[in-house]
Specification:
alpha+beta; single chain; 30% helix; 60 residues; elongated; 2 helices
Length: 60
């Protein structure tokens, strides 16, 4: 998983971009415009769904 490797090595990872939508009642909802796959990959790693020997040296 190259994204996790990039994060551990402190490489540049593009930001996640959200748009804010407001409904008729004034409630705001944030919608991911760019970066959903990055968020999914990070979540999968943190939840232990992605395992790799390389990351055993990095305690989470």
């Amino acid at each position: 998983m190259e994204l996790v490797d990039s994060l551990f090595h402190n490489y540049y990872v593009p930001p996640v971009v959200f748009a804010v939508a407001e409904d008729e009642d004034g409630h705001e909802t944030r919608v991911c415009v760019d970066g959903k796959q990055r968020l999914t990959s990070i979540t999968a790693f943190l939840n232990g769904q992605v395992r790799a020997a390389l990351y055993a040296a990095y305690p989470v």
